[in-house]
Amino acid sequence: MRPEVLNPLFAETETLDGVGPKLKKPLERLGLSRLRDIDYHLPERFVTRRAVENLDDAGEGEQIVVKLTVMEHRASRSPRAPYRVLAQDTLGNVLALTYFGRASYSAKKQLPEGETRWVAGKLERFGDTLQIVHPDHVVAKGSETLQRLCEPVYRLSEGLTQPRVAGLVEQALSRSPDLPEWIEPTQIDKAGWPSWREALTLAHKSENGPARDRLAYDELLANSLALMLVRADNRKRKGQPLRGDGTYRGKLELPFPLTGAQTRSIAEIEGDMAQDAPMLRLLQGDVGAGKTVVALEAMLIAVEAGAQAALLAPTELLARQHYETLRRMAAPTGAEVVLFTGRDKGKARESILMGLLDGSIDIVVGTHAIFQDAVAYKNLGMVVIDEQHRFGVGQRLMLASKGRHAPHVLAMTATPIPRTLTLAQYGELDVSKLDELPPGRQAIDTVVMGQAKIAALVDRLAAQLAEGRQAYWVCPMVREMDGPEEIAAAEARYAALKDRFGEDVVMVHGQLAPELKDAAMERFARGDAKMLVATTVIEVGVDVPNATLMVIEQAERFGLAQLHQLRGRVGRGSEKSFCVLLHGETLSETAQKRLALMRESQDGFYLAEEDLRLRGGGELLGTRQSGDTAFNVANLEQITELLPKAHDDARLLMDRDGGLDGKRGAAARVLLYLFERDYGVKTLRGG
Ligand code: ADP
Ligand code: MG
Questions:
Q1: Of 558, 573, 601, which closes a domain?
Q2: Are 313 and 322 in contact (CB under 8 A)?
Q3: Which of 18, 134, 246, 618 counts the most CB atoms within 10 A of its CB?
Q4: Interval between CA 436 and ligand 1 midpoint (Å)
């Protein structure tokens, strides 16, 4: 049960003044559904503005506040062109206020011709004209907000404005209670950290190092503690030693010899599985390094020892692909492999459930559906988690583990996360590395070009497709998951390419009916379709060796790790492969550097490090990096700096306070619930 003191923080955002169904949507797009989320929606940065009278006195790129008289509205001629409002300062210098897309609605309302307005924003030059793109504020009087020297800048989604979010934050903070202190007092004193509530207030006001650090530390502490609790619980349950006799593995007919790295990893896994203690091992290997066959060997060990194995994939698409591959590879061994997803209904579902219960199914491949309560195994001995570097999965899995024994767990990832991050995400675990690609792989040529050259690109593609090649076309990413904007972009591109290539083009995206998605994938995999238009759902795992071309639109919006993953979809066969990174008109310096890195290197580990380095430089600092780390508050620097301390602190709590009894223990429970790591608490029950 959640401690009562936290109730106000878990109230829905709709309980805030001014939040109705209309505002709820854009808030949810940012992941803000409760007051605590708003509290933790920390500013991305702060701006300091200067009030100027004469635009000639202001520098390019400067954040300014200026009093303007509105002269004229110029509607955009095409949907792509911006909407402009011309205005002049008191000395007659002309400035354009520029709006893209739907933002022009607010321009029409806020800037009546002939009136005077105070406008705040970043001064830029576009050709000969001065301009401010999407001003931060437009007000009739030189209001207080504009005069304030330092103002937070929040991440927004369409439908939200800075003042709106700032107002909600203020409300949420005023309704937030004081919470008991869960951090070791000596640590608080040494670092000079404010209390939880004060830290939040300060972090929204200005760049306050200690306040931000404290909030980050809270998150890290919650995480470490939850991991330790789960681990402690897991240790109490025994695993089962699984020793294979090689009968199944001996019958495999692999078309290639294993690489040294694969052989080594399999030996490491085999060693772990023979132990009483449940294995917790991470298999790291770049895209295409050959993780699947390692997983298969590991699962066959379990089967040889009379147990069952499960492979958990993050999406249905991937589950299906894995199933096809594994079934094909495992066929000569006689192991029974099935696919189980949430989609299975009726008889088919019943028969799988029966097979898992009576042990006639040896290996099940599926989505999280394979761990539903309704699914019972005869003896699940081994679980493989594919491409799932999100937090908590491994832990939850250990908890949800079925049967008398905790299963051995192998997590596989192509994201070469640094050691600190694996510690943070999985706790203490062992790592096997596939640091060697199978022989004969050709380098992928990577080309970076502006979106404007798209017509020429399509011509070149046409020539390639005519020669029997296949191509992926990945549409821009707006958010991490497929949202309406991704779908719209993909649909539009699909329509355009279909005009040109007809039935040769198919499309997949996250909101397509599963049957349609499968049908499209199958046509592409069989080679009946030449081009696959997709959102990022194809990011991981898809394996079509004949595909040699990868086009990624608005590549600057993707992280390097993700681009690398996408690029890894090609270069899987013997033919030369190409990757084209298309970018928009204007590129920030960091974006340019990142795309250049993609051109230069094909080493996933190197790219990941560089990505961290470039971003550590500031671009994404302190913002959500949910794809990369398990944390929303703590940034990479803070993780590196504070995680070891938090880890020790958590250990102290566990050892001295016997797992959260006592006063500080009670406070720590509040912390776990605050960060929703409360499954850690649940292990304490009856323990
Ligand atoms: P990953 O999951 O690590 O990205 P896969 O397991 O999908 O990589 O393997 C990529 C491709 O390489 C597959 O087509 C697979 O059959 C092939 N492959 C795996 N191991 C070897 C090997 N030792 N030699 C040659 N090809 C291999
Ligand atoms: Mg894979």
A1: 601
A2: yes
A3: 134
A4: 11
